[in-house]
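My main concern about presentation is that the manuscript never shows what a single data entry looks like. The format is easy to grasp once an entry is in front of the reader. For illustration, here is how one protein appears when written out as sequence plus structure tokens:
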Amino acid sequence: MNDIRTRLLAAFDLEHKEHLAAIREALRAVEKDPAHHPDLVEIHRRAHSLKGAARAVDLPEVERLSHWLEAAFIAIQRGAVPFDAAARDVVRRALDAIEDVVAWAPRGGGEVDIAEVLAELTRMGGEGGGPEPVQRRTAAAEAGVAPVAPPTTAPLPARAVDASQSAALVRIRSAGLERLFTAAAGLLPEIENQSALVAELRELRGEWRALERSWHAMRPRLLRGGSHDATGTAGISFAGDETALRLSSFERRFRALGASLDAAHRAHDRHLWSLRRWGSGFQDEVRQLRMLPAESQFSNLGRMIRDISRAQGKEVEADIRGLETQADRVVLQRLKDPVLHIARNAVSHGVETPQERVAAGKRAAATVRFEASVVGRRLVLRVEDDGRGPNRAAIARHAVERGLLGADEAESAPEERLLDLIFEPGFSTAPTANEYAGRGMGLAIVRREVTRLQGSVTLAAREGGGTVVTVEVPLSLLSQRLVFVAVQDDILAIPSNDVARVLRAPADTLFTDLAAPTIRLEEEDVPVTPLAALLGYDGAMPPGNGAPLALVILRTAGRRVALVVDALMATRDSVVTPAEEVGIDAARFLGTVLMDDGSPALVLNPAALSPRPGMALPPLVRPVDESARRRPHILVVDDSITTRTLEKSILEAHGYRVTLCVDGREAVETLGELEDVNLIISDVEMPRMDGFALLQAVKGNPMTSDLPVILVTSRASDEDRERGLDLGADAYIVKTRFDQNELLAGIRRLL
């Protein structure tokens, strides 16, 4: 029985919203155009259907309200009651009461007070003589066919009444569910990592084919005159010939190895296809487990708006839309308080009193609308009111008082910049603070929480009067599509939801005669700035010389900016470890992801990268700080990313400039390009060119022979130490006994 009631309530939840929305839309149409004639028969039908549906799910308060709402519309149809502003106000409050009862009472909340509005409906409906069926005249009726009475309840959706489709509910620990989410989130990146094995296997097969061709070319010569039959196979007899026997054995094993390699490649392809198919489906299903309708967090928003407005002596109609929109449970939970605060602000700061509204030529009742929707892969929440709108003069005055803007700057500041100041901590234009608003901290907290959710929040004036606050965040935080870029020696990631596009453009195509360099994209001038400069990296961007620039077009808070990066690396799904868990600045970084080699990459927070309205962007060509030029410049050469990162962090913390190389060959090439390297720290065991060879190259070149070189290696034998020192190393440090103080002391001694 409980299962039947659950399904009935689910169907009623959808049905009553549809009826309320239709009646409210009719009220708005009349208020917008007093000459408009609403379809009163249709409105009455909806009230009648609502009454029957409420009876079916045993909601007596809703049934009584709907009954007298139906009676009121019958009275209006008969002309006994005018459909004036007073009548519309009673109807609106009845609809609000129905919404409150449905949202609150069945969920265990307190009893909703409906006595006052029920009494007013009774007075209206009583004048009309009470409810009775009112139907349109149809062709069947005119033909004398008896009309079929409408059902007392609307038919339930198939998905609600089909028992075979209803899912059994089970209780599980939330911690266990979160671990399942984490495991699923980590699965897809691992599947993508398997794709790298495909390339490696393909490369191995190519190498084997090349060896096979070389073998066929060498084989006749190795067999020293062996004859071949018509098929090309050597006809030599191997009996008694040890070399021939060994070659024959080698050939069999070589061919077996090739066959095994082919089989492994085919098997891996099959397994990867299956893994992608089932793994992706598994992650999608698990992601759906986290998805809940917005109603789960915002079902009581309408009642809260009405309660606050009544407490402040204001008349406000709450228009709540899109509650069926689904998003990640965690995202919705963390947005609940920000949205409630925005709605409170709309009522407290935005909406005028009924007397003020009437004096301004508005209707006495204001409207606060909340709407949830999905755009792309982002959740968009809008809170809109038709109140007085932002007070630009008060904002500018308060900004000057707090020192955020100069007096002249405040007069000429664009509206976008002024409105953005509202999110500054402690910024409030309210003359006094109350229990709902006025202390100036709420919107700052809203922005901070939205930013942590990798989103943006903007405030703008509403066309026709009022204010619109828009919040945009990712639909889910389970795993994300990231764009990986290179900036100097670092690999960084940017959420793809905030990336409009990536492209390469010649530097000489930029417009540089403006206040900031721009690039023309889709009929819009987009400002261009180096990502390195936004992050505060040392060094200057080289001036444009026609070479292509790698650009990431970032889109946040409705604005676009083109970020110049050193290279565009890849795009893939990855699991982001939150910034709070790894101890990095959550204002600038969302967290970290693991790269294929096990090293972490920082995930940038796009909201922090996008400059605030009115802020100047760093120049495209950044002059090098002279103090940076005077700092000793050290070249660190090591094929281990862990060692490179460790040594770089130690050296930079002590005031040195650092350039990284992965092996000796890259170091030699770098030395040919840089003229200000003061010292080299190098590993010994490296691919392509090891540390000893690098040492020989450095000391053998008259241009670099005086350059100090410190070898930091795991080779601890006396022979290796003597070899390094004999080749000209100025210091030899063993990694197993690595002491940063020993390294720093050696550097200071040599410099």
Remarks:
- The longest strand covers residues 366-375.
- DSSP finds 26 helices and 23 strands in the chain.
- The CA atoms of residues 76 and 82 lie 6 Å apart.
